[in-house]
Amino acid sequence: MSSHPEPGAGVDDPLRAAAETMREVRARCVWSQRITHQDLVPYLIEESHEVIDAVETGTRDDLREELGDLLWQVLFHAAIAAQDPEDPFDIDDVARTLTEKMVRRHPHVFAGEVAETPEQVLVHWNAAKAAEKRTRRSVLDGVPRGMPALALAQKLVGRAAQVEVAVEPGDKADVPASEAELGDALLALVATARVAGWDAERALRERLRVLEDDVRAAEAAS
């Protein structure tokens, strides 16, 4: 019989118990001891997609389980960060930073501001976010380039509109009338790329680089 206590034993708070379990795994599992932030990236991507699958097609049990797996990734990164010799932080620091940010970005909840519509909420959110990111020089700063090309395209098109660099939709006769039709159109474009021997992901990323250059040029000229 093991002399070690059960992970999280004696901890009433389930989140704290999970954090303590992760700490024990990091301390005593030889595989986990060797893992770095970089090593975890593929697992983080996979777990994120599994949460998406659970939301879109899974059961409530699936979603609960997959959210737990994603939380484990957060706890794992925090456990690694806690051992950094130069700039350590732990899950409590992560939670504290998150709480402070969310309080700042919801002044209509915590600071007496008024927001009666989702649009007004967004105004408060964007104002708080802009105040936090004063060191940023471009609307493109902070956009993660590791996003899938299609998600990145939607993000960059929105950022480009902020500096009046418009990406016009296609001819009105060809514009899908619903998300379902949009899915059909995107799939047809991917099929066209396959027949032609083109890489659809690369093609979109290369076009996005041109868009980024256009945005930065517009910012420099303003």
Automatic annotation (TrEMBL):
<dbReference type="InterPro" id="IPR004518">
    <property type="entry name" value="MazG-like_dom"/>
</dbReference>
<dbReference type="InterPro" id="IPR011551">
    <property type="entry name" value="NTP_PyrPHydrolase_MazG"/>
</dbReference>
<dbReference type="InterPro" id="IPR048015">
    <property type="entry name" value="NTP-PPase_MazG-like_N"/>
</dbReference>
<protein>
    <submittedName>
        <fullName>MazG family protein</fullName>
    </submittedName>
</protein>
<dbReference type="Pfam" id="PF03819">
    <property type="entry name" value="MazG"/>
</dbReference>
<feature type="domain" description="NTP pyrophosphohydrolase MazG-like">
    <location>
        <begin position="36"/>
        <end position="110"/>
    </location>
</feature>
